[in-house]
Write a structure and sequence with these properties.
Structural class: alpha/beta
Strand content: 15-25%
Largest sheet: 8 strands, antiparallel
Radius of gyration: 27 Å
Number of strands: 33
Distance between the termini: 47 Å
Shape: globular
Amino acid sequence: MSLERKVAQLIQPQINSFDAQEMQEYRWGSYLNGGNGGPYGDEFAPASQWLRLADEMWDASTQPLPDGEPVIPTMWGTDAVHGHTNVVQATIFPHNIALGATGDADLVRQIGAATATEIEVTGIDWNFSPTVAVARDDRWGRTYESYSEDPDLVAQMGAALVEGLQGKKGAEDYLGRGRVIATAKHFFGDGGTDQGVDQGDVNGDIDALKAIHAVPYPVAIEAGVETIMASFNSINGTKMHGNEALLTGVLRGEMGFEGLVVGDWNGHGQIAGCTVSDCPQALIAGLDIYMVPDDAVALHTSLVAQVRDGTIPEARVDEAVARVLRIKQRAGLLGPDAQSPSARPNAGEYDKLGMAPHRAVAREAVAKSQVILKNDGVLPLKPGSDILVAGVAADSIAQAAGGWTLTWQGGRELTNDYFPGATSIWAGIEEAAQESGGSATLSTDGTFDQRPDIAIVVFGEEPYAEFAGDRKNLIFADSEGLDLLRKFEELGIPTVSVFLSGRPMWVNRELNASDAFVASWLPGSEGAGVADILFGERAATGKLSFSWPASCEGNPLNGPDGALFALGYGRSLDDTAPLGDLSESCGFLDGAPAADWFVNGRLSAGITASAGGTDLPNLRGEGGGLVARGIDRNRQEDARQLTFGPGSSFTVAGEGEGAYIITYNLPAAPAGTVTIASGERTEDVTRRMTVAAGKGWREMVLTEACLGEFGDGLTITTNAPLQFSIAQISRSALPEGTECSF
């Protein structure tokens, strides 16, 4: 192989940034569809279009090459993290947090096998799953992708999914019909970042960190996992994509992994000194494939040049290419028997997407994952009951499915029409009620003409994925469910709460107002599994795989201290012991209301803003090397874009008490050092702002924990150009000990 063709095997673009002509020219070794990517720009394309694109890319990659160079077919990777959920009609299984609550590894193997079959229907070769993160701070937006806070349970479940996807190592069907390549991710420490900040910092003694976060990997390796994905996070200041000591020394040296290490979405670009199109450090550190969604050609050019000038040893390239080729060989993509995607087993058999046996497995998983936290005797529901079902989530398959469902973030805007063949929680309850000789009525707002015997309120978190789901605390603050529960409580109507969430949350108020409370997690497309538990058609066996918080502060639990319900808690249907009244006090809710300093594009009375001694009335104007101009966030000029010159600073000052809370957007990482000062203390926040960069509008909470005793103002200073937008600045009394967060 020529150097150019070898380097191409190590580059993985995404389907919406290149076409078949580019594939034929460069011969990319693999490609992926991103969370919002679909064939020909349509993320809701029918399965036939996915298979059509797979054939196009295969054909382009297998055209003859000049000079007798070997032809190496490409392969397609996808994030099928809870079923083949990028594709309309696929079975949507519960997210991993729910599967952890089942404690059933054999069931997880069945889910892996069903998912692999549905992936094969569309001609795709490779799944970026399972996530084997050990989530240790539930504020993390990817907590639901973790099976448990318990490393051993994560290891058990992760290995089971690997075997379901690939087949058992040494078995006749290994990577054969109904099997696809699996990926254990993200190596390592993704679930251990400070304050649960996605892609953030993991700090501590390396052996102590490995004792938690590395535990699932040797088990996955023993199960035969072919690929492992590097993590976005850093370990003690070094980004994992460039961490040779861990990617090579630990993963390969200590753990004996011989397979392929693939990067995450532009993760190599976060390495110090790298950009997404120029990063020899990652390959040298042990990365085998760069996931470079939109800059494949530029990266290819730089890598080829760096091999030629000796920056990258060609032996390292050969090693990585050999790993790519070995996996393709094992998966049947090389050799005379290799077939185009549409000619392979299961390909084009579209009736296998969401077929009845797969939906039955999903329904069983839903039922086994339901965790009953409270039951005053109203469960199981009595036969013949007249039931009112309330809450906007009750008939929303999208909300029950959560993130990574048809789109990256998922969302309520995905109506049930996007999920043919699926069953909402409401539809499952309605059918079960009729079968029991009773009736069910859907009333989103809880109104009724005829008084029901009991009300079921379905409510919870709206869908999110990755950093969009990061939180500052674990308060469930949305009041829709609470208002409905209190309304029924006042009317003397018994209630059952069905709580949809991607993590345990502080819901003491809702627990107090409920006669029964079920942690339903993110069950997916088979809502009838929820009804199976409510009506007693199945025994309630679900057990918490995460500790449930007693207080609202959001500090990590990972054990019984501070837990309302400990790891392993879950009631049977005949456990009607009273829970007792829970404290509804919460410092984040009970504190003094925030005093707004800047909101909706206006400074409050008595608050001043300045740069270099120049006043900026209502944060507008120029002075001291800073330019402030109005921008639109939610309404006309309700935010400000601050453009800092080198050495410039911005100060906002005035009377007030409590923590500073700033709603901000940082489009790109700081080019230099950024500090924040209040009173007599100055804090370097460069690293924390770098992690926050590019993640959209976020909330910065600055407390005395990081800034010491406050003064009557706040100053942001940078020694390099910086663009920073602000929508709101306020001060608020927060509970003592609240950490600073970005």
